[in-house]
Amino acid sequence: MPLSDITARQAKFTGKPQKLSDEKGLFLLVNQSGKYWRLKYRHGGKEKTLALGVYPEVSLKEARTKRDEARRQIAEGVDPGLVKKQSKIANKLASENNFEALAREWHQSQLALWSPGHASRVLESLEVDAFPDLGLVPVTELTAPMILEALRKVEKRGATETAGRILQRVSAIMRYAIQTGRASYNPAQDLKGALKATKQEHRPALPRSELPEFFRRLEAEPLNPATRLALHLLMLTMTRPGEVRFARWDEFDMERAEWRIPAARMKMRTEHLVPLSRQALAVLGELRQLTGHCELLFPSERKLTNPMSENTLSYAMGRMGYKGIACPHGFRALASTTLNEEGFDPDVIERQLAHAERNKVRAAYHRAEYLDDRRKLLQWLADFYDSQRGSNVLPVNFNRAG
Question: Is 381 helix (H, G, I), strand (E, B) or coil?
Fold first, then answer.
């Protein structure tokens, strides 16, 4: 007689395993650990057993449906046990190659190239904005609409710049999946132009015509001497405020007139060599009398092992009347504009600004070249600033066309 649901439900382990038969090879195995659906069948001349699930999670009706599907496979010459094994392997591979698993593997592969802080921010952004929607999706099944739907949620909260960064990271992860043989196509590349454009916030910069007045105010304003010198060094080196704030004395070679900024402090994570003009060396000589006993050029007044506050230079310019008109970072734009107007080689200017070179061949060339050109460029810039401070000596640019 066929097995009834009541019989299956009331069956209990009595000290030894027992089989409660249904029909067509289906039976319920009752043992100490539970109740299990099994199908006895023959394939290739051998008797085999196929597991169909656990009762009551799999009901009697569902077990019969699974039995009938297995018998259909047997009738077609297919071993249902082998099909199940292959399915388990495929599911395991899909689980190992889901987006989150690949993303974490990619993240680990990049750690040597990133600072700890950046690495932490990248992983956190993926955990918050990508894994909830995309994490469990096998990378081979990821589509552009899936990615876009996740990014739209980021955009809806007004974080358009974050959405753009997430897209870049998803694309990088998919490229890694292709490189390691886990995928053959990158759907993120189909989303170019799909996100809202991020409004660029340009940092305010002085026009060159305002330099004489700026230098007048800089000398007249009762600033901390180290703060005044920091502004001078910032202008003379075309560096970023953070690179100046964290500058250490052991990074400077006065004999070679060079400042070697380690990769960990550079935005592009590449060591940057800054040639020092005569004026920059003079600033450092004056500064050494103030902070030469410290490791940092510009230590905090409260704790010498910490750098000056990131707001110190901005506040100083605000006191000089430039709030909303110009900021410390804007001196890079001022220098770049001036040097381009004077006909200096744009490649040399970009190299001095330590901007990323997307072409790897050009990047390698730029690292090896331009040091002499950049030294001349920065010396011209320093002489130009002197001329704006009232010096009668005008800088001469022998490279200017015409």
Answer: helix
